[in-house]
Amino acid sequence: MARVSAARARRQRGAEESLAQVVLGFESIIVFLGGLAVYGLSALPAGIASWWGIVAGSVLALLMILTTARLNSRSGIMLGWVWQGVVVLGGIVVPALVVVGVIFGAMYAYATIKGRALDRRNAARVLPPRP
After folding, report:
1. Is there a contact between 43 and 53 (Cβ–Cβ < 8 Å)?
2. What gap in Å lies between CA 48 and CA 40, rounded to an integer?
3. Which pLDDT score, from 0 to 100, does residue 30 have?
4. Measuring CA to CA, which of 15, 20, 21, 81 is 20 to 30 A from 61?
C-alpha cells in the first residue's frame, strides 16, 4: 500500500515576527529564573509567601511564550511591550530586574523596529515598481 504524505504549507513569517519571537522566548527563561531569585531572596513584602515569586515568574514566562503565537499582529507586538513593562516593574521587588527589563526591552525594540524595516524592504523587492 503506497503511503501518500501531504506536505503542509508553512506560513511565511516576517522578520519582525521571527526576531520578536526569539527575544520573547529567551526572555521567558530569564523571567522564570527571576521568579526563582525572588523566592530565594525572600524579596516579597511581609505577609506575602515567598513562593509567590515562583508563581509570578512562571505565569509571566508562560504568558510570554503564549504571546509568541500572536506576534503576527500589531496587538501581539503591543502585548510583548506590556510584558517588557511588567519585567521592569519587577524591579520594585528585585532591582536587578530593571536591568533585565531594560536589556531585553532594547533587544525587543531592535527586533520589532529593524524587523519591520526588513519586512518593508523585502515587500518592496517583490512588488513591481510603480510607473
Report:
1. yes
2. 14
3. 96
4. 15
Please provide residue 4's backbone torsions phi and psi, each rounded to the nearest 5 degrees. Answer: -105, 125
Given the C-alpha cell 512588488, which residue does it identify?
Answer: 127
- Bigger pLDDT: 122 or 106? 106
* 18, 115 Cβ separation under 8 angstroms: yes
DSSP letter, residue 68: G
- DSSP 8-state symbol, 50: T
Higher local confidence (pLDDT), 85 or 3: 85
Cα 92-98-103 angle, rounded to 5 deg: 165
pLDDT confidence of residue 1 = 54
Contact in structure between 68 and 25 (CB atoms under 8 Å) = yes
Q: Are 16 and 112 in contact (CB under 8 A)?
A: yes
Contact 71, 131 (CB under 8 A): no
